[in-house]
Amino acid sequence: MFNKYRNMDMLHGSLWDKLAAFALPLALTSVLQQFYNAADVMVLGRFAGDADMAAVGNSIPVVALIVNLFVGLSLGANVVMARFIGAGRPQEAVRAMHTALWIALASGLGVAIAGLALTHSVISWMGVPEEIRAPAAVYLRWYFLAMPLISLFNFEAAFFRSVGDTGTPLMALILSCSFNIAGNLVAVTVFDSGISGVACVTLLAFGVSSAFLWRRLRRAHGLLHLSYSNLRIFEIRKARAIVSIGMPAGVQGMVFAFSNLIIQAAINSLGPEAMAAAFTIENNAFCFINAFGQAATTFTGQNCGAGDLKRCKKIFWECLLWDEAVCAVLAVSGYLASPWLLGLFTDSEEVVEIGMLRIIWVLLPQGINAFLEVFSGAMRGYGYSLPPALTVLFCVCGERLLWVWFAFPQKPDYETLMVTYPLSWLITVPPLAFLYIRCLRYFAPKAAGLTSRA
Length: 454
Hints:
mainly alpha, about 0% strand
């Protein structure tokens, strides 16, 4: 369906159809990445037991925290490559891609080593109940071992997205998720290996997806061709450009995940029913919202490289309109279908009831969150990445910390915790809007010339 949009021309013609063709496969790719954990939860919940399922549920915020770092860093590679492509300098994009591969491998290995060393400290800090600490530690260790593969996949996917191809990463995730589901069932029902078997299969599945994209890059023609002889390329100036754009984006994503860790620790104090409901379907809805933010980043990056700032502004508004429309559809359909969807995870009516509270307070107001994603995504496309990341850090994380410390103790129930989500989004929109206007006035006019110095 989306084949005709591969290597799409982002610089000319209509935008609305290209934005959808770019964002929808990207959203589905993110959903499938989320589904790794969801598949683990469902298989363990049905065939292993509540302890293993709860252990995975407690690990999800930690995994999301780290994966968001890789997603953000890879956005830096996306932007740098997109701007060189828009400027008509494909050879520079090739050199940026091979430089980014070294960043991917180094960051993945660094996080893996640090994570393995700090597993027990993280579990203790989160207040994970004693009875599930051992399986939670097993699951996290396997995930930390997979970090180099996860990092490599996200950078490889970013290379394809820089030319408008979001279909190839989606195919990689379909293949690896199918492998993950089948492998989980075999590990639990045939070998009775429980959470360790499921976690091992998940690591192998990440290997499948990263190997699939590696092979596609090796067989690609033009600027996406991965050449072993070019792996000696590592240009400091391009690496700095990638990190200076990607690290703030990664930090912004990590801020959301970190605040969720804080909330998860508070949820754990409410008992196993609330803890089991902490992972819910709004994470998958967010994948669609974030996809249009990433579309704003890539399309703005290419058009900024081409010096077409008028088209960049049009990209912002069309991404925002798309995102709000998608939020409306997801809110209504998600709310109506959520009792059935939550029932896929558990047979407990109490858990489903608690999960519905999260749907009401987190899924239904996602239209507010869409402003955050598109504002931030557009500014990253110009290379203006640090100010919005710091704004999100102080507004979102700060509000949620204060809420958990002061509001939650006054009324310690699940609904009180959920109120913090829409409230944090509301207070973050105005400063981001101010930054975006400032970016258009002072930074964007200079941004088109920055590519030549990267």
